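Suppose you are handed only these lines of text.
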Amino acid sequence: MNLLRLYYLIYFKKIKPFDLSKFILKKIENLLFKNYFINIDYNYIKKQCLYSEKLLLKNKNNLLTGIPTTYKDIFSTKNIPTTAGSRILKNYNIFYNATFLNKLNNLGVINIGKNNMDEFCVGSNTFNFYFGKVENPLNKNFTIGGSSGGSVYLVSKNIIPFSIGSDTGGSVRQPATLNNVIGFKPTYGLISRYGLLAYSSSMDTVGIFSKNILNISIVLNAITGFDVKDPTTFNLIKEDYTRYLNKNWLLNRINSKKLTGLNVGVSKKIFNNIYNFSIRSNIEDILLNFEFLGAKIIFINILFFDFVTTIYNIISSSELYSNISKYNNKFLFDKTYYFLYKKTFFNSLSINTKNKFFIGNYLISSDKNKKFFFLSKKIRILIIENFKKIFTFCDIIILPTISYNNLKFLNLNLNKNLDKYTSVSNLTGLPSISIPSKILYYKNFKFFQGFQIIGNYFSEAKLIQIIYEYEKNFFKCF
Ligand code: GLN
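From them, the structure of the protein bound to glutamine can be written out as follows.
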């Protein structure tokens, strides 16, 4: 759904924010049993609609006033419980809003509901054991992807223009690819993490789903920026992420192809290690498309790529352990729960989280610390240095998003290599956007394929320009 079109309808009073929300709620009414949502607060929606209508009346509206959206349930909200997809936090009320959420609320965005997810963001399929499994709308045997699986559904069905999830190791980009939408992961520190319940604090980012890149740039304009409450955000000059749209890559050339001068980095080694035929040919096609637009392909060497998943798992497990063990306190005070169900904090976790929790505990216990955790951190620095070097002669890097097609996703969590391509940008903090590229038909099934482009730190405006150009030439807003 096009945000600008919706804005036009709202601005010229062809539709009221209240009716729009009602229409969407009606649409999702019969989907509620499908577990896409954990919480929907009707009173809150009403309040927010009234506020946006007030803004419209006073002519204080902007592009986002009255636009409906949904958030992953990892973001704290003042009036609605924040569960992080877990049983222990099922009635957990937080007294503040996430920073980006406050910014959107002030602009008059309407939060339709909070989406289902993998518990504490650990996982890649949104098969939540407590709030229910989220199915792929195309085929119930396949997964929708995760961990922000609930948030992608309404966007992929063209019901809302954008929704917000979180990306720690690919949780926005992977479901985006599986559902034919764009998944955006910004530079670490571009959007405030205040209010995002932490999984792995050094890698968590707020991510955006949408069907077209213009929507994403409009949302980015609204939610980025320095936040005193999050010391990892950067104090940069306020940017307009739409400023390069429709321009040439090298701004001074007028008549050449739009992406002339763009250097695209591709790792030969990674490419040669893709054994899945369809994924390989997909990447080949994409590189040809980029060449068609005038870009130049450059071969690069990404160091330590084989260790990336291991390092990601070591760091994320350790950080998960230290981040969620604090919820243990809840059990100290919740005696009834303990005596009635004989449940401890550890027992109430899902298997996925339990595994990571256990591994994390082991990894940061005193003598293992140096061997695994600190070593991983050192290699992480080397990986970052290597990327910095690559970006002195490359503008973007192209990688696949996932190494499998949907068919194999049933045993998703057994496969620890799943985050191979996506976790690189989380380890390094680089911005990365996954873009749909192909639809495959197999028997009665439809599968979507995509790819991701990784850019230099804070180069989001340029990445948006590239995707806008690519979108115009090779796919329409589906
Ligand atoms: N599948 C990954 C994990 O379990 C990624 C999760 C995420 O990005 N939140 O760690």
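What can we learn from it? The two ends are 9 Å apart (CA to CA). Residues 44 and 462 are 37 Å apart (CA to CA).
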